[in-house]
Amino acid sequence: MAIPWxxxxxxxxxxxxxxxxxxxxxxxxxLIFGIMDVVxxxxxxxxxxxxxxxxxxxxxxxxxxxxxxxxxxxxxxxGAALQVTTxxxxxxRDPLTTILATFGISLVLQxxxxxxxxxxxxxxxxxxxxxxxLFYLVYPWYRVLIAALSxxxxxxxxVFLKYGTYGIWIRATMQDRVMAQAMGIPVPAVHTVVxxxxxxxxxxxxxxxxxxxxxxxxxxLDWVLxxxxxxxxxxxxxxxxxxAAAILVSLLEAYAxxxxxxxxxxxxxxxPAMAVVVPFIVLIVTQLxxxxxxxxxxxx
Amino acid sequence: xSKRSNTTYWIAFWVAIAALTVAPLVLPEFWRxxxxxxxxxxxxxxxxxxxxxxxxxxxxxxxxxxxxGLYGAAAALLMVKPPxxxxxxxxxxxxxxxxxxxxxxFATRLRDIYFAISTLIFSQIFxxxxxxxxxxxxxxxxxxxxxxxxxxxxxxxxxxTSETLHWFVLAVVAGSYVVLRRITQSPFxxxxxxIRENEARTRAIGYPVERYKIVAVMLSGLFAGLAxxxxxxxxxxxxxxxxxxxxxxEVVIFNVLGGIGTLVxxxxxxxxxLTMREFLSRLFPYLASVFNxxxxxxxxxxxxxxxxxxLMVIFMPQGLLGFAKRWLNK
Lengths: 300, 330
Prior knowledge:
The structure holds two protein chains of two kinds.
Chain A: H1 5-36, H2 43-61, H3 64-87, H4 95-117, E1 131-134, E2 137-140, H5 141-163, H6 165-175, H7 177-182, H8 187-209, H9 219-234, H10 239-259, E3 264-265, E4 268-269, H11 278-289
Helix pairs in contact in A: 1-5, 1-8, 1-9, 1-10, 2-3, 2-4, 2-8, 2-9, 3-8, 5-6, 6-8, 9-10, 9-11
Chain B: H1 3-26, H2 29-55, H3 62-79, H4 85-107, H5 112-132, H6 134-137, E1 143-144, E2 149-152, E3 156-159, H7 162-185, H8 187-197, H9 199-205, H10 209-235, E4 237-238, H11 245-258, H12 264-291, H13 302-315, H14 319-329
Antiparallel strand pairs in B: 1-4, 2-3
Helix pairs in contact in B: 1-7, 2-7, 2-10, 2-11, 2-12, 3-4, 3-5, 3-10, 4-5, 4-10, 7-8, 7-10, 8-9, 8-10, 11-12, 11-14, 12-14
């Protein structure tokens, strides 16, 4: 049996593109978890809200890039407001209560979107329409651009965390909250900023990914589940681990699409749709051998 | 518990049972079904209280156990002719026990938030499986089946009407409540509560914590599966939506609204949630017609309920029952 190199290369590109978007969603999630011990169940809804605000702004201004910027800013502000009103009162209580609170937020946001925008999916036009040839496929440049932009945003976050004043405060708070407070770092404000950054990143990925999928009120569900898997596999709170796990999971899923075609059950090849179980299998295997994640020894 | 409050407790218990027994005779058909539904969701919420309230593990995967119970009962009712009630219960419990064993084995390796997320993801595995195995499960369209006969086949049977179904459900839920209450007060239940209070110390004393947790998840899953079987009898319909994690979320909401660690609380929470749902989904169309804003008619009831839920998490974490208890003791 000849190895179909062309398909493998195409799927590698596909896997990296979806992996970068997933990494963008997951790094916001893991940043919020690492610093605040908050598992943000509303993350998928912030992603969805970002995409919808993107749609509204595009309709108003006609510019994709304005939409990307505005949507990120607006959702970051919404995130900050949510953090101040619902999560700040829960500081110091059992981290499980924050799961409940953010789950409540996700219910409210999702149903509001359903009510306000209706059940019909919306569409965002791609800002660039160029294509190039990849073997026999015509591959849109936009997908490559998404991957590059996601990498740029994550890179920007890294630089900010490494050199920015707030970034240094954020890392200090991540290491030791009490000590950071004792040194005069405004910890509550750091929490709000972190939640705003995470929300903004979710919104940006929503707008960026909008042209590839229909935008509806339930779109956050799929993504947040995958992002949770990635965050657990990468070691919760470990930013680099989440990014690596996002790309690993997406690549494996992309290759599985090829592989299931060779697995025959009752004379029929399996449907490529079966590849969606791959992230779950990765998770199970990780839990069996390294319950705390692939990339971090034991967080806490 | 003192002797006097014990007597008061049992009087209250029997009064509630008596009221719920008489209720279907006076209520119209719709509300009769509604009451039965509250009991079924109450049983599901109660089963999850074993984990949330007593062992301190928040499960976001109860829809898997409930759904597998539902599909198990569906399998028995569709494959075995004539449909047999006991076989449906057996199948449902076996299916949910299988799911519970699977989830328990993997998820109990983790604690707190990690446990919650793992249960959520594992329940989603079952959702994907049921959704994609179209030939067996009917996929998105689900399965339709008919109700079995109540009783022992060949000896004495009578058809399930909405009254007899209600009494049957009431008997099962009340029985489960008594059993679960006994379990939480048994030495086993005490160990679970000590895991909630201080896991490290419980381990240090010498209890095999992991084994206790696995049994707790299995127990909780079995009762959730029983709720699924009852739901199969009530609705004669199984769909992947019942395995989706939104159901698990609702179960957690019932628990928080009613008051965790009380067993009765989750049932009250379910009653409160479902009653509010009925009330709000009538209120908004009414308001829309009064204020002449047609768009308001479709306002989702989950927005006000979600806000109430968030407020309860922040300001009243002990739930309605806990709040009432404190208020009565004043």
